[in-house]
Amino acid sequence: MLRIHFTDADLAQVQLAPRPDPLWEIYFSLHRLQSRRSLGPYEAWHRTTRKDLTEKGLASTVREVLLPLYPRGSYIPDFLTPGAAVEGLDAGLDAILAAPRGLVQREVGILGGVSSVPSWTRRLADPQNRRVFVEKVRTYYGVALRPHSDVMQAHHDADRSLRARTLLDNGIDGLLTGLGPHVRWRRPVLEVDYPIDRDLHLRSRGITLLPSYFCRGAPVALADPDLPPVLTYPVHRPAPDDGRSATPSRPAPLSALIGATRAAMLRATTTGATTGELARAAGVSAASATRHTTVLRNSGLLVSKRHGPVVLHTLTPTGTALLHAGGHHPPST
Fold this sequence. Notes:
Layout: E1 2-5, H1 8-11, E2 14-16, H2 22-34, H3 43-55, H4 59-69, H5 89-98, H6 101-114, H7 127-145, H8 149-177, E3 183-186, E4 189-192, E5 198-201, E6 207-212, E7 220-221, E8 230-234, H9 260-268, E9 273-274, H10 275-282, H11 286-298, E10 302-307, E11 310-315, H12 317-325
Parallel strand pairs: 1-5, 2-6, 6-8
Antiparallel strand pairs: 1-4, 3-4, 7-8, 9-11, 10-11
Helix pairs in contact: 2-7, 4-7, 5-7, 9-10, 9-11, 10-11
């Protein structure tokens, strides 16, 4: 179990990451890629990505280069998931290249002590060898994740809106309590199901909560307790039978969206809104608003997540683009 110890100062410095972290998504996506069982929402991605990687001659790169450094288990080198990556893939890869030689040697050595790694990994301390590795990471992202970036962004934004709403309604205790079934908030300690027993004292540094589309199961933290604390956790997903999937199998035609009511509802969703709030914004009944949000969601313009007794709707990147095309500019998040 991982026990994260908060002070009052830490509780005042809990942050939600503003955007997906591409390097953490690479790490978790490689785990999803290894298994064909219980894929759930990743099934289509798994099938397409394995095919694309094979066709582009990258299957051996994944198997022989990436998987040894991003293994399942109790440890991943922290230099592979630098905080700079929240600013984008290039920033994250530059941070990997800039990691000190001694740090890379030490963390690769720790990895070698807990899992079997090829001998070539020890040469990553050399900047030139690391540059070759970074280009392989970049190539993998381009094939496996970049085509899926809109979906990752939509789920990140929806989760972020849900957590923000929880914070407003129930305070920091409600936010930390609602992080998932593998997390328990027993003030002042956040208990996380973990493969090893460990304590992390935040020491008035706060913590960044990072929702991840490809993370599944228990959250993951950085190994080095002296790094800025981060807890990566799975994005909230609606139950598979609740009719609120963000990836419909049969999208409604775009022409079904034309009309003042749905346009008003899209505009009202720019910062997240409940069904009742959308009904009031559009001047329709709750039942009518539900029908309209169903069309908008099935057309890939909204993501809907249950938040206690209500459903919270947020825009997908496609929905945002549609509003931009119509002259409405949603606020940046």
